[in-house]
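sorry for the late reply, my laptop died twice this morning and i had to redo everyting from scratch. anyway the thing you sent over, i finally got around to it. pasting the sequence first so we're on the same page, its 89 residues, then the predicted structure underneath. double check i copied it right bc i was rushing
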Amino acid sequence: MGHGHVEVNGRRVDIASYRVRPGDEVRMAKGSKDLDLVAAAIELSSRGQTVSWLAVDRDARTGKITERPTRDTIPVAAQEQLIVELYSK
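ok and here's the structure:
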């Protein structure tokens, strides 16, 4: 992400922790769409389950945040309390 391969709402972003909001469109920069790493990531992502708060166009290499996700709609098995405890030390 630090190399400017990603655009949010048409502007290059080079901050890995950039916060997106509902309505934001995330896309690969024009020169980055055909990178082997991007193609591999697209292929890998197609194997997983789709989340309701993200609309993805794999061919155009774009995604749109449709709503703010809640913990119940994020398909990751995590114990948030353990993460908070780790970082609070």
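The mean pLDDT is 86.
thats about all i looked at so far, will dig more tmrw
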